[in-house]
Structure prediction request, 211 residues.
Amino acid sequence: MPDTAPQDQDDATPRTSRIQQRNRARILEAALDVFARHGYRGATLDQIAAQAGLSKPNILYYFDGKEAIHVSLLNHLMDTWLAPMREIDPAGDPLDEILRYVHRKLEMSREFPRESRLFANEILQGAPRMRPHLETGLKPLVDRTAAMIEGWMAAGLLARTDPRHLIFSIWATTQHYADFEAQVSVLMDGEDGFEGAARYLDRLYRRMLMP
Prediction:
């Protein structure tokens, strides 16, 4: 049976709140695994419940349905995913700042492969649940970052290229290692490809952007 709502007793509310927080986190963790493996369309509440070790009514006590869980994950993901771009320092050395961003994005692919696949699956479906974030969160941030990079290039601090395509290229070359993890593992004979990728991408972008 689903958890009951908190009682009116003073000592019941904190305990119930902790239980609710723990169960919500448990559901979201299970859902992240299910969505990353099966995509939104292939995932079911039954799969999420089984992964979480909870009943389906328990899941529906905390969330209205599969879409509500998915949206909650995406909302949290966007904050995490955009943080490295927000951290690019306009006052820093341009090449160092871009390379730091490249390395951080690669680290995130290593640390958060499920989150990367969750994001990729949503975009491949046309971003039906994420489009507001793309329009109001991602686009203004990319616009500001592209303008900053353009300013560095105009000042001769970076080699001239298209700032937006540079950003797209960084996303593609770093997130590939998460989104295509199974393929990378086979082609690398099971070896960890991230250390080699870090060296390769550093050299690639350093040579391309060196003024």
Observations:
- Residues 12-42 form the longest helix (31 residues).
- The domain at 12-63 is CATH 1.10.10.60 (Arc Repressor Mutant, subunit A).
- DSSP finds ten helices and no strands in the chain.
